[in-house]
Every structure is written in C-alpha cells, then in structure tokens.
Fold this sequence. Notes:
By secondary structure, the protein is of the alpha+beta class. 19% of the residues lie in helices and 38% in strands. The protein is built from two helices and four strands. It has helices at residues 19-25, 84-95, and strands spanning 31-41, 44-53, 59-67, 75-82. A four-stranded antiparallel beta sheet has the order 1-2-3-4, with helices on one face. The model has no long low-confidence stretch (mean pLDDT 85).
Amino acid sequence: xxxxxxxxxxxxxxxxxxxxxxxxxxxxxxxxxxxxxxxxxxxxxxxxxxxxxxxxxxxxxxxxxxxxxxxxxxxxxxxxxxxxxxxxxxxxxxxxxxx
Length: 99
C-alpha cells in the first residue's frame, strides 16, 4: 500500500509548437513546464523550472531535492520562488561550456 505522502508523477517531453498537440489541447487545461538541471549526483538535484498554466501567469521555482534513506522514491525537497530575471540568469549558466 502506498504511503499517503508519496507522490507519483508522470511527465512527458513534448514539442509545444507541434500543430497536432495544439489541436489535442485546444480548450483543455494544461501547464507548460520548462525544467533545467544545474546538478544531479550523489542523491542531490538542483533544478529550476518555469511553469505556465493554461490562461495563467508564468511562475518560477528553484528546487533542491535530496534522497532520504535508501529509496530514490523518498526525497526531501526545498523550493524557492525566483524571479524571471533569476530564471533567465540560471538558463545562461546552463549554456556555459565546461573548461
């Protein structure tokens, strides 16, 4: 039996400009997420996301997630709201080449 505090997510990577997808989603609620990772390793993820719900304003988050115990399904999560400018600066960091 699943713990009531556990979360099961299903996400799909799609092209939001695909005409067939636009037709399927026309008039239906959805949210568009753009997620980037700054670091993934040793049971820790640093990631940031822009989220645009249907008909809503875009908001921006920065998350630090860490595996708790032996299971990848159990993670602690810290979330900070960030500004669009901060989000854009973080996107620029992901574009830098490693020396």
